[in-house]
Amino acid sequence: MLEPIQGTDNLIRRAAGSSVASLFLMQARIYPDRLALVEGDRTLTYGQFGQRVAALAGWLERRGVKPGDRIAILSENRLEYLELFLAAAWIGAIFACQNWRLAAPELAHCIALVEPQAILVSPRHADRLSELPVQIPIVLTFGPDYESVVTSNNGTGSPHALDPECPLLVLYTSGTTGLPKGAVISHRAEIARNMVLRAEFGIAAEDAFVAWSPLYHMGAAEFSLGTLMCGGTVFVVDGFNVARLCEIVGTEQLGWLLLMPGMVGRFSEELKRTSTRAKGVRVCGVMADLVPPAEIAEVTTLLGAPYANTFGATETGCPPCSSNLISIGAIPTRLSKQQSPFCEVRLVDAEDRDVPDGTPGELCMRGPTLFSGYWRAPETNAQDFRGGWFHMGDVFVRTPDGTLDFVDRVKYLIKSGGENIYPAEIERVLLQDARVADAAVVRKRDPKWGEVPVAIVARRDDALTKDELRARCREQLAGYKQPKEIYFIPFDAFPRSASGKIQRHELERRFAGQEIEGEGAS
Question: 463-472 — which CB contacts under 8 Å span 24+ positions?
């Protein structure tokens, strides 16, 4: 909430206090008949959508939800997801997006971390919620009871006046300690990210957006909110429905069409099979480094749109590197990144001293799109924000032309089909088995998913089998985190540093050429 500053200073501060909800409501008042949301046969105009959001916000307030309280959601992509997004923003609550792909222990951790006052759940995931060891005061399942809430006439008049620094979202990122962290994103950051995206990619206010990737991730969540703050239409799709995506591409003017690694080739094949001609796409794709260059050339040609050669994160938005596009039809041979003009960047060594051009250094950033730290993680925040800069944990080199070349990750991270996986998440599960003496997880290039995790294990008991370890991982980890192969080696065969730490990069070099066996990524 806005602090009660006295006199003219208070008036000035309030005049700068737009929130995500107030900007959305302005669009609903100006364009009540414009299409806001489409999900299959269900559609809502901005006027209808605004009324439902106000009614949901009013219901939550009457049930005791206050500014700063957390509201969680456990659901696949659907219209109601976005209604709850904006209802939380309306009353100044913090919206915590739960990843339904997580195993039960991980999901229970994420919910318990934020201690939600309320949670809304879809029928598809209601049983999962009931099985978790968490107590939540308010639980509402999407269906008839929910519809009676949002169609009532008991809505609040207007959104609460909020300080732009008030938290809006908690989006979870994989943790180096093996459990997800909650990244807190403010109204200020969300509004700035929307402005930066449109300024750098030339996306118009009325351009539509397709929310097909999970709404618990930055991509779909932020670009949906940005579209609704500008008066465009959001098409909600339940996952990578390639036929539906092609249909929308052929009929709608789109801003940014997100295409994740592992899916670009499939999408191109469907465009060719159906002879779909894009009505208009401003820019497509994400994570160019993990997509085969030939696939980038093909999809840009088919869509008539350049490919986004960005480097950002949940914590930063599209910056720090969001000003570079791969031209239509080009097969990129170099994926150097161009720094966004809307942020500041430093490259530093292990002592946080700036490194000269041509020398690898960890990328540090500050700017208006930056998040507000990790939820209830003061030690992590003190480390990652030291010196007043956010340390991303990614190593770059600045080239003579001013662009930035990605080198590696300080915090070893596996990016698999748009999902972030830290090895510690998998290693923690493997090491829970008393028959495991040590374990390390490394990344391996994969033509479909970009990267996949591979586990190297030293056994205390030679009777331990790969299938037993796979079963343990299936029980405790999301499908995309399953090791795609497990290799057994002697304990003494692990390469180690002078301090005894396993040298992950050496293991990666040793096992990168091995053929991965077993089932594909899920």
Answer: 463/435, 464/433, 464/435, 464/436, 468/433, 469/430, 469/433, 469/436, 470/518, 472/429, 472/430, 472/432, 472/433
